Amino acid sequence: MRTGRNRNLPLPPIMDPAVQAARQRWTEPKLAPPRVKDMTPFQQKLYRNPYAHALGTPVRACRSSGTHLPSHFFLRLQPTLHPETSEPWLLPTALSAAALPGPGQPLPPAPSAYTLLRQSWLEYLGPPPPVGGFATAWAGGKARAKGKAPGRWRDSLNMRIFERVGTEARKLTWREDMPDLVLRLLRKVAFRALQWGFVRPGGGGVVRRIDGEGLSRLEEVEDVGAVVFLRRLAESPALRRVRTDVMAAIDEGDELATVVRKLVATARKAALKKGAQPTYQQLTEPPPPRLQPQIVYPALEYPTMQWRGRQVPVYDLQELLGAEALEELVGGTAWKEDEAVVLRDNIGALGAHLALTGLKDYVIR
Which helix (H) or strand (E) holds 296? Predict the structure, then answer.
C-alpha cells in the first residue's frame, strides 16, 4: 500500500488474475475435434471440402516474394545436416516425410523457411546461369556444383534460421535440382494418395467408375468431387496451330527486343568514346518491351467440368504423374481400360484431392 493520495502500485503480472487468465487460455490443451457423425450437415459438407482444409492451414510468409498465404500453398524448408559432410543443407523435410511410405515421422526441431510452392518460382530462386567469360563461367560452375552459387533463395531465410545455424549459415547449400526434387516428391505424395483406390476394384472410397457412355453420363454419378483422366487429353489441331503461332510471335518479339537493346548499347558506347556525356533520359531509358506469355496463358487457368450446376476440377494424370508412374498406378488393375474416373467427394478421398491440388498448383504456368 502507498500512503497519502498516491495511487496503488499495479499488480505484477504473476499476481494479476486478468493476465493469468489470458495466459491460461493459450496454455490449455485444445479440445478434440468433433466426430464426423456429430457434425451438422453444413459442417460435414465443409469438412469434405479440400479447399476449406487448404485455406484452414496456418498463415505463413514467403520472405522472397513478400506474400502471406496459408501454409498449404508454401514449400516448407528446414536446415538439415548432410550425413557425410555435416554441412547444412536447406531441404523440404516435411514434403519428403509425406512422400515416404509408412507412418509419418516427427520432423526435427529446426526452424523453417517458407517459399511459394511453384516450379517456376523455385527455378527463379535457384542459382543463375553462367554469364561472362571463360574464367567467370568456370568459377560459377564450381560454385554451382557445390550449391554455393549466389541465388535469390537466400532471401527466403529468416532470423531464426540464422540464429540456429550461426556462422555456418554462409555454408548453407541449396540443391541445384530443387525444382525437379520437389516435383518428384509431390508426385510420390499424389501416387500414394491415389494408390489406395486404384488397387481395389471398387475404388476403396476414393475413386468411382463412370458407367455407360463415359463423360456423357457424368450427371448420373453420385458424389463427384473431381474428374481424373487416365488418358492424355487430345488437343484440337486448330488450338495446337494457334499455340504454335503465338509462341513463334513471342520468340520473334524477344529477338527484336534483343536487337534493339544491342543497338542502343552500341550507340551509347560509341558516344562515350567520342567524349559525349549521356543525358538523364538516356540513363533512365527503359529497356525495349517484351511480350508477356502469362497474358496469353493465365497462370491460374484451371480446367473444370459442369456437374449438377457446379464446377468440378479436372486432372490429367499423364501430365501430372508422368506416363511411367501412371502405368505403375493403373497397370494390371481393374481400371487400366478406363479413360476417366471420378474422384469422390467424401472424407476418404480428401488426401487425394489435396495432393492433386498441390501438384497442379506446382506445375501450372
Answer: helix 293-296
